[in-house]
Amino acid sequence: MQKWIMGGLFFAACAFAVVLLFTLPGKAEVAEENNPTMPQVTLDTASAEAIVQASCITCHGDQLQGGLGPSLQQEGAQHNAEEIYTIVTKGRGQMPSFKDKLAPEEIANVAMWLAEKK
């Protein structure tokens, strides 16, 4: 009887390993998730301001002066556009990720707009 139980456990472990083999992300997917690549976009100031008004002012204030989140009025002096893109895409600290809320091009546009604030 023990052989049947051990054989069943071994089969279940092998099946689980095969499932994990096909469902876990690969190195390239993990690297992209850890350091997202900013798409090339042309800065559209009006669009960036509209996105910020819709998505950012709750935490960062209507003039980006800060509130729950830090001030973004001089964000470009602290981070370049690619760093801002990564922060907005992945989130950081209390800031949530926006990768499921905004398109990568929208995040890139906002990142470029914020990078100009020095």
Automatic annotation (TrEMBL):
UniProt cross-references to InterPro entries, sorted A to Z: Cyt_c-like_dom (IPR009056), Cyt_c-like_dom_sf (IPR036909), Cyt_c_BACSU-c550-type (IPR012218), Cyt_C_IC (IPR008168), Cytochrome_c550/c551-like (IPR051811)
Domain Cytochrome c as annotated: residue spans: 43-118
Iron found in the keyword field: yes
Pfam family, one: Cytochrome_CBB3
Keyword Transport: yes
Keywords: Electron transport, Heme, Iron, Metal-binding, Transport
Name of the protein in question: Cytochrome C
Species of origin: Paenibacillus borealis
